[in-house]
Amino acid sequence: MNMGVGQVMLVSTITGLATGLGAIIVSFFGEMNKRTLSALLGFAAGIMISISTFHLLPSAVQYGSVYLAAGGFLFGVLAMLLLDNLIPHLHFFQEEGRDKGFQKMGCFIAAGIAMHNFPEGLAVGAGYQAADKLGMMIAVAILLHNIPEGMGMAAPLKASGTKNRTIFGITCLAGLFTPLGTLFGALLFQVSPLFISLSMGFAAGAMFYIVSDELIPESHKQHSHATNIGITLGVLLTLLTSL
């Protein structure tokens, strides 16, 4: 890792706090239009798929073995599946209304997203462990993913009449679990080099699950053609920056 731990933590914190940007969009500008949201989600999905396939899994094999990489990948998928069953966390937009039940809904979504942000932070740290460019690409993809997640938290809170500063605070608090995951990864990597291989496999599995379970289905609900364009651009960008 060429960048220092402090610099990586700064990047991870900015990535996590993108949930706050999503809250600002909902609080002051309303919902993002469906075509733009779909393209954004598709773009993030394309980057995540490419990073996992072209970079994380090959690096996991290089740092350890095929078996460690495969085990980490499977663990990443199973961990996200378990989280989704214990804490279902995200449907990007809820129906508007003044019912105070929306406040409870928003807080519940925020708690779920906070738990899901932890392995995303681990993915950022694993990427930087391999190469600065890879770590930055993962951070950008997760940042793009976090903006609509912040919107998903903010929408029901806004509908309940919650103040804008409170909404912003809740979404940012959930986002801070991203650097917490990165810090945990940095400590883990110091224990044994084998954890680097496992963590990269885990990050690849977690991102595959996020793309399959959240980004692609949700983006196709918004605007299918924009999704396909976004995915294509995400894959092409990752490929070109790898050359």
How would you characterize this protein structure?
- With 243 residues, the chain is mainly α.
- The chain is built from ten helices and no strands.
- The two termini are 20 Å apart.
- It is globular.
Structure summarized in a few sentences:
This protein is mainly α and 243 residues long.
Mind describing the biggest β-sheet? none
First CA to last CA: what distance?
20 Å
Helix content: over 70%
Number of domains: 1
Q: What is the chain-wise order of helices and strands?
A: HHHHHHHHHH
Silhouette: globular
Features:
85% helix; globular; mainly alpha; 243 residues; 10 helices; single chain; 0% strand
Furnish the topology, listing elements before pairings:
Elements: H1 5-16, H2 18-29, H3 34-63, H4 66-86, H5 101-130, H6 132-159, H7 164-175, H8 177-189, H9 194-222, H10 224-242
